[in-house]
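Progress narrative, work stream C.
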Amino acid sequence: MSHNILSVIAAMAEVANVTHDDPTTRHPKKPVITISRDYGSGGDVIAHRLSQRLEIPLYDEEVLKEIAMRLQDDPAVVRMLDEGFGRAKDMWLYRLFSGNDVGPDVYRDTLVKVVMSLGRMGGVLVGRGAHVILHEACALRVRITGTPEICARRMIGQGYGGLEHQLEKVLEINHKRGKFVWEVFNSRLSDASQFDININTDRMADFEDVVGMLEVMARAIHAGRVLGL
């Protein structure tokens, strides 16, 4: 078993031991949804609308802020780890002068604890491998995808530049997101079994139907787990 997996298991076990007697650990107060998305697939829009529909918080940048607060470190450094986990190994010079031990293991453990804490309260958690961390929790795990060309054209329609540039951006960002989840959790975004539902938005001009479907699923999972079904 790899060091990465052992580190994640240890962090999860620590959170579980601390919150063993807390009923919200098993039954969150409100629905919990994790959304993993391709760039340009509409995942961010869907996450935002879903949080409004369910009247629950949306956690994206908030996760980074919480990690930075717990580490008592510069949010810019945490963002470097978030955007390029592998580069953390090259941050020895920063650690030398700052005295802060911000490395892969520290970041990973803190990320797990933050996501699990948020998962106990309810909300929509975007990206950062939340679907892996909450795989045993009362959470709906969603993957939003799209073919690169269509995702690129969707971004162009929103005023984000030319086709060639956007296509490169789609491929680059999707690669980084997949690499992050693999390096941190040894899990692949292409593994459909890691999600409760996989949605390709290529033929969807309006995401309201997707939001409505996910709302029903999230409420069903939340109610079913609470009722012990």
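Work stream C, second folded protein:
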Amino acid sequence: MVRRVVGQRGGRPVQSDSIGVLTGVTETHLTVRTADGEIDIALAAVTAAKRIPDRRARSATERLELVAAAGWPPVEQGRLGDWLLRASGGWTGRGNSALAVGDPGRPVAEAVDAVIDWYGERGQRPMIAVPLPLGRRVQPELDRRGWDTITPTLVQTAMLSDLPASADPSVVLMREPTEEWFAGVGGRKGGLPPAARAILTGVPSARFAAGYSPDGALVATARGTVVDGWLGITVVGVEPDQRRRGWARRLTLALADWAAGAGAERAYLQVEEANTAARRLYEGLGFGTAHMYVVRLP
């Protein structure tokens, strides 16, 4: 961090701070690479300078986003500084978007260009998942480029100890998904390509929940993963003729019981902001919104 005099106001000096990486020093100037590019600062204008530790502590939102990313592992992953680059053949936005968490290690405009190149090399449309309000640096750049905003999604959390206990014999938890379970999920998602199976089975600590009607038909599915003490609840789905019968609640609570026994303390799930029915369900169980994210694409 460099503090320097940038002008005068009312006969008094006006100072400004520049934060970045020191890339050059001469007898008269410093060169600092900031998020907006390199700037030259006259030594005569510098009033203070200090070294900032290389890595600050991550915020709660950043930590949760990284846990959620680990719970939905892509087929291929790269890095752009701290940002995660994820590709999975186009199956789901989470598996095929750059996660803009942390410092990309270069000015934002260059980082977006690098994202475009990375996805272009794979024949995919570039997408960037932007947690809010963390996206205050990248959002203006994407706005400038005219990128669209899709699927505003709420990340909701709860303490497992606050959820009701469950002992429902109609819900079975499996260590490995069966072909029937895959077919149930795929039937509601337009089929499951190989990438989908890789994502769904890519976390070692996982359970696959199946809900059965009295006649033995599979009518509801869900997936739970435990990463760093968090239960992640995903792909909750119920057959259309079985909805509004409490299946999503039963699956969620069964996974919560398992996760608590596996050492988890908290749970998260992701629900689209427009899905009011699901929001009411999870809020009724005790989940509250921790933050939101959006997906941006050209």
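The mean pLDDT is 91. No further action is required on this item.
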